[in-house]
Amino acid sequence: MYVITCLGNPGEEYRDTRHNAGRVVVLNFLKSFDFPELQFDKKLQALTCDGKVGKEKIQVIFPETFMNKSGSSLKPLITSKKKAETLVVIHDDLDMPIGKIKISFNRGTGGHRGVLSIVKALKTEGFVRIRVGISPVTPSGKIKKPSGDKDVDKHILGKWRLSESEILKKTSKKVTGALETLFLEGREIAMNRFN
Alpha carbon 61 to chain centroid distance? Predict the structure, then answer.
């Protein structure tokens, strides 16, 4: 069984913010594969549901803690390094342009507090990550990453612009395709096809 978790902040005020890109794309995945409605699990402090992609069983976890405490929802589930290899963490990435995704395995946290929380809780980096770009780009396609804590916070906690929402819809389809490939054909093929 695979476990998907998507990082974000709970609550209505954060729902449409760029920091919650991981949640947005996973909601699209759940719809695509007709997963049941998410239910609150008190033990995990998370919304969760189970479903299937092909013959693969999938458990989906939306931590209802804040981003920097995400690991606490996974600790009761991912109890070994072997199990961590079946975990897929989906999150926003400020170092990548909006519209781009990247699959990686057993890599550092890249300074992402949610990922750091998971690494600390599970004591391993040996899991799959799908990073979803959220940085603006110039008309010529160069990344225009905000700098300084204040500007970074303003950007990641800001709401999606209409033009960005359209890009995010396409990105969501890409992530759904990447997850399906990952579950049915394996990590290496998914990385080759989508990176």
Answer: 10
| AA identity, residue 166 | E
Integer Cα distance of 133 and 49 in angstroms: 26
pLDDT digits (tens, 9 = 90+) for 151-185: 999 999 999 999 999 999 999 999 999 999 999 99
Active site residues: 19
Residue scoring higher pLDDT (139 or 80)? 80
Alpha-carbon distance values, 27 to 85, 89, 111 (Å): 22, 14, 25
Task: Kindly state the DSSP code that residue 96 receives in the 8-state scheme.
Answer: E
Sign of CA dihedral 166, 172, 174, 177: negative
Catalogue all structural domains in the chain, each as residue range(s) with its CATH number.
Answer: 2-194 (3.40.50.1470)
Residue 147's pLDDT is what?
84
User: What is the four-CA torsion angle of 38, 58, 122, 75, rounded to 10 degrees?
Assistant: 40
Q: What is the pTM of this model?
A: 0.94
Strands 101-105 and 128-135: antiparallel
Alpha-helical (H) ranges within the chain are: 21-32, 71-74, 81-84, 113-122, 149-156, 162-185, 187-194
Which residues are within 8 A (CB) of 157 and not within 5 positions of it... i.e. 6 or more apart?
14, 17, 18, 19
